[in-house]
Amino acid sequence: MPPAPTIHAWRPPLDGVVEVLHARFPSHAYPMHAHDAWTLLLVDDGAVRYDLDRHERGAFGELVTLLPPKVPHNGTGANGHGFRKRVLYLAPEQLPERLIGASVDAPALIDPGLHRMISTVHRLLRYPGDSPMANELLAVSLERLRVRLAAHPVPAPDSSAARTLRDLLEAHLVQGMSLADASSRLHFAPAHLVRSFRREYGMTPHQYVISRRVDLARRLIVSGHSLPSVALQSGFYDQPHLIRHFKRILGTTPKTFQTPLPVRP
Predict the structure, then answer these.
(1) Residues 174-194: pLDDT tens digits?
(2) Radius of gyration for the alpha carbons in the chain, expressed in angstroms and rounded
(3) Among 22, 110, 99, 106, CA closest to 57
């Protein structure tokens, strides 16, 4: 009997993502089927052979594969050894319907930078507190997909948009401001806000928020607050989330800031 597949599927807290799938299939062959979502596929091990619109295609290596909604396809391991894949299923409105034809014609994109971004989105999904960073990276990835498929130029970064976003983030530092809400308030596309902010300040909006929350946390710690209270008051998901980012940014743990200097006689 062939080994059973290993499957992890869940609904993440990401704007426009209806499902995430991480799976290893030692021998399974998908029959022809269709989804109501865009299928954004990375194949991490092995290779997948599939048929799309009566053409034989392949997914493997650093290719980024985008299959459009409601267009039937199948899939099987190309080399007889199965395959391992990671998939983001995107709500139909995340990409314009007019791009379906382009994704049918060329579903596989050779774009190492895009592959790294999407892979990082999957990695960030392991930590619930990092979903805002995953949202930012996904927004930029989707913009890149739209540009690749439609051959449209990317709007230039906007300094005023970056500065306005910074003020908005400062005003909602502890409670947080989602990228979708910021986009709605400021009337800029999410990816444009992220790119503009990164050009202006050398970091993404969520990286800025995390750095400011760490700054707030250290002040609370030296004022004598407990770590669980500090995590809550500075906007972190939980205490481990606080500790991880505190150590990453400051090179030490919060406990170090709790230790007073010895009193000299």
Answers:
(1) 999 999 999 999 999 999 999
(2) 22
(3) 106
